[in-house]
Amino acid sequence: MVTHILVTGRLQVIKVRRDVFQAIADPTRRAIINMVAYQSMNLNTVAENFDISRPAISKHIKILTECGLIVIKQQGRERYCEAHLQQLQEVNEWTTHFKTFWTQKLDALENFLEQDTNKPTENK
Amino acid sequence: MVTHILVTGRLQVIKVRRDVFQAIADPTRRAIINMVAYQSMNLNTVAENFDISRPAISKHIKILTECGLIVIKQQGRERYCEAHLQQLQEVNEWTTHFKTFWTQKLDALENFLEQDTNKPTENK
DNA sequence: CCATTGCGTAACCAAATGGTTACACATATA
DNA sequence: TATATGTGTAACCATTTGGTTACGCAATGG
Asked: Does the complex come out with an ipTM higher than 0.85?
């Protein structure tokens, strides 16, 4: 079911059928994205880079297409995976809101914290 | 099992037992993060803002603590959820790598795409 | 001291996830 | 035309996920 409709740039309508946060939760899918980001690649070539079976990769790619991160271009019997990573903007913006948490080292919160982390009391 | 050990700022060691990408995949957990980011809140108060049960929220918060995004401060019988969002840096950086995908509107790829999206042929 | 509040957790459950093997089928290719 | 290649998908499976209710227990407050 369509959960979002976003219009990017020039009337390019992308129907998102799946939460992009959930799509990138899986490490294999992130690896696929890294792999095809700057070089389109057919499905079998992608699959050869992993230990899991070709159908498993096929499923992952299907999920990525469902949220628009990958677009398939059929070419003869081959299907090329093209990265369309505009959807990652949502993730980038959400995390950017919290950028102060890792850029400001010594805000009041961390000062407070350091009081109990001075002694690195540890667990197992 | 500990999957990462990161040292931030001043010898503050965070043991990450869970992938942060997976932790933020759930919309409820993202809502919790938004809620406590700038104002610590005890668990029951967090739970009151959701339709799901208090134990369900408790589980979500446990997951968030397992990847270091939230730290619990016990205060009497109450447990305050404090946001420690440094881990989101990993997500922010990964998505930032692909920023050109949504900032450069007219790279060769999109030009090509517009050829087939000019007519918004549609599906349901 | 007793009731209430705030919380963790166990036990349970349905659905989603991530993998597999087996098969079908269209496109290349010899 | 026969075979090999590239791929989707069905059927199946174990595990994980996200929720519930029920219970226990320490801290608070009357």
From this structure: no
